[in-house]
């Protein structure tokens, strides 16, 4: 079996695409259709992030009312730190993803924060799909 790409989070062979994201996802190359690159949209804050921010804000307001503004200063610094951390994490999200129709379901086949690795994976998948088309065209040659 020919291997087109082997990296830290993905393996592409002539028959399978294996993405080792938080959990392993395996796609049969034969069942991938309508493979395309799409720009990933940064999502809104999750419910946990929103609740954490709201809780810290309420805590700072209560501390400011009860103990004075000077006592609330460390909480305000913590809120600003958490907000900056959330924004930094959000901005470092994936810019591109490989999407496809897999067995009649629209799926994300691969994403990577590293553009160099993402482009290597994209080229390897493209070569695999082109080779699949060549294999299927042999039966159509007239003799």
Report what the structure shows:
It is built from 3 helices and 7 strands. It has 143 residues and is an alpha+beta fold. It has 2 domains: 3-41 and 95-140, Roll (PH-domain like), CATH 2.30.29; 47-91, no CATH class. The chain has a 4-stranded antiparallel beta sheet, covered by helices on one side. A hairpin with a 3-residue loop joins strand 1 (3-6) and strand 2 (10-13). Helix 1 packs antiparallel against helix 2 (69-91). The longest helix has 23 residues, at 69-91. The two termini are 29 Å apart. Keywords: Membrane, Transmembrane, Transmembrane helix. The chain crosses the membrane at residues 40-61, 67-87. InterPro entries: DUF6232. This is DUF6232 family protein.
Largest sheet: 4 strands, antiparallel
Name of the CATH class of the largest domain = Mainly Beta
- Can you give the helix content as a percent range? 40-55%
The domain tally reads 2
Quote the CATH topology of the largest domain: PH-domain like
Oligomer: single chain
Main sheet: strand order:
1-2-3-4
State the shape: rod-shaped
Number of strands: 7
């Amino acid at each position: 079996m020919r291997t087109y790409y082997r990296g830290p989070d993905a393996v592409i062979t002539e028959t399978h695409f294996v993405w080792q994201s938080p959990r392993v996802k395996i796609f049969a190359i034969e069942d991938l259709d309508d493979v395309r690159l799409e720009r990933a949209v940064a999502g809104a804050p999750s419910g946990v992030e929103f609740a954490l921010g709201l809780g810290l804000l309420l805590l700072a307001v209560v501390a400011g009312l009860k103990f004075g503004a000077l006592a609330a200063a460390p909480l305000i610094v913590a809120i600003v730190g958490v907000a900056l951390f959330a924004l930094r994490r959000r901005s470092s999200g994936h810019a591109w993803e490989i999407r496809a129709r897999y067995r009649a379901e629209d799926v994300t086949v691969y994403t990577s924060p590293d553009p160099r690795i993402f482009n290597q994976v994209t080229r390897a998948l493209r070569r695999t799909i082109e080779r699949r088309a060549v294999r299927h065209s042999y039966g159509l040659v007239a003799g």
